[in-house]
Amino acid sequence: MDENWKDNPKLSQMDRGKLDMLSQLAMQGAGKSPSELLPYIMNAAAQGKQAGMNFSGNEIDTIIQVLKAGKSPAEAQKLDQVVRLMKMIR
Fold this sequence. Notes:
The protein is built from 4 helices and no strands.
């Protein structure tokens, strides 16, 4: 993943701790297939919640938009599939 995602102006209002957590997740999740990514993200979300880090719906939508920027249509579709699966599991 391109490290420039952190400089996206859409993320400028997000808490620095949340951005640091996302950066760590991005590095550790790089190269995972969508099937590997879902349990990884679910585990990370649970750990973040235990640490008191909650993301608003708007923050989540913004993160997804930023992650999809510059991706191929196939990659963006895979990300959408992961998001749909996560919403179903909740």
